[in-house]
Design a protein that fits this description.
This protein has nine helices and ten strands. The chain is an alpha/beta fold and about 260 residues long. It has a domain at about 10-95 and about 170-250: P-loop containing nucleotide triphosphate hydrolases (Rossmann fold), CATH 3.40.50.300. The strands form two sheets. A six-stranded mixed β-sheet has the order 6-7-8-3-9-10, sandwiched between helices. A four-stranded antiparallel β-sheet has the order 2-1-4-5, with no helix packed on it. Strand 7, helix 7 (about 180-195) and strand 8 (about 200-205) form a beta-alpha-beta unit. Helix 4 (about 115-125) crosses helix 6 and helix 8 packs across helix 9 (about 240-260). The model is unreliable at about 1-5 (pLDDT under 50). The structure holds adenosine-5'-triphosphate (ATP) and magnesium ion. Adenosine-5'-triphosphate binds near residues 17, 27 and 45.
Length: about 260
């Protein structure tokens, strides 16, 4: 995997969407951050705070109304969309699987993927225990009669699909939020493993899943209100630490309840 790229720099003031709203409204304000090569950035914040919008700006689904987004010190508009998207591996909350083999689902979008590359990607995404249960392994068709692909397994296929591209940047947008806490933890470990040494941006509701990030940014109504490492944010005793503590209490209460049942 090559690391000959520079910073991912996002520096945008406002983003308005002119297509769906009659009155354009600012979604992000004064958003500015830099992700150094190989570092992990996390975006956290309430629903509607603008996390996915940051990701969509980076993918050029929208254009910012002011400010700039640089990749390797080059504005992202200077890349054609295809080469920009080739450099970015994306794992979303709900990933689409096609009714074909698991191997083809993994290599989807990477036309020159060899069998060895597909196997490696499956291994790195920890798909092995799932594949071992299937007599045809990677050649099993998804959606074939009798085969159920769980949410967690789907996530692993999506992770394998994103890493086979050998992207410079990995983006996980709520990749674990629809899963039960055990599977969430397993997927979190896989994500940690595959994002080693790769620049990554993770969007999460549950703060516990991103505590090892190099920088965590808390968005409130499209603005950065707190930023730092997990420990720095806890020391601040601000909103981040309040929400984190609440979430941990809730998680513990849930586990205790689970044990009683
Ligand atoms: N295409 C769009 N046109 C206009 N407004 C939009 C569009 N997409 C999102 N928004 C608005 O932008 C704001 C930020 O949305 P965004 O999807 O970035 O939030 P989010 O932080 O990812 O939320 P969630 O945690 O629910 O995924 C919301 O108020 C949303 O209603
Ligand atoms: Mg979102």
């Amino acid at each position: 995997m090559s690391f000959d790229y520079g910073q991912t720099r996002i520096n945008t003031d406002t983003k308005t969407d002119k297509h769906e709203l009659e009155q354009p409204r600012a979604i992000l304000k004064n958003i500015s951050f830099v992700v150094e090569p190989g570092k992990k950035l996390a975006l956290v914040g309430q629903t509607g705070s603008g996390k996915s919008t940051v990701i969509k700006l980076l993918l050029r689904f929208y254009e910012p109304t002011s400010g700039e987004i640089l990749l390797d010190d080059r504005p992202i508009e200077s890349y054609d969309i295809e080469s920009l998207h080739k450099r970015i591996g994306l794992v979303l909350q709900d990933n689409v699987l096609f009714n074909t083999t698991i191997a083809k689902n993994i290599s989807y979008g990477t036309f020159d993927a060899s069998d060895k590359m597909i196997e490696d990607a499956a291994q790195r995404a920890s798909l092995q225990p799932f594949l071992a249960k299937l007599s045809a392994g990677l050649l099993t068709k998804v959606g074939e009669r009798g085969l159920m692909v769980s949410g967690g397994e789907k996530q692993r296929v999506a992770i394998a699909r994103s890493i086979i591209k050998r992207p410079d940047i990995l983006i996980f947008d709520e990749a674990t939020s629809a899963l039960d806490s055990h599977t969430e933890e397993e997927i979190r470990k896989s994500i940690l493993e595959v994002s080693k040494g790769v620049t990554s941006i993770t969007v999460a509701h549950r703060f516990a899943t991103v505590i090892d990030s190099d920088e965590i940014i808390l968005l409130v109504n499209g603005e950065i209100t707190e930023r730092g490492t997990h420990n720095q944010l806890l020391e601040k005793s601000g909103t981040y630490s309040k929400i984190y503590n609440l979430q941990t209490q809730r998680q513990r209460a849930g586990q205790e309840l689970g044990e009683e049942v």
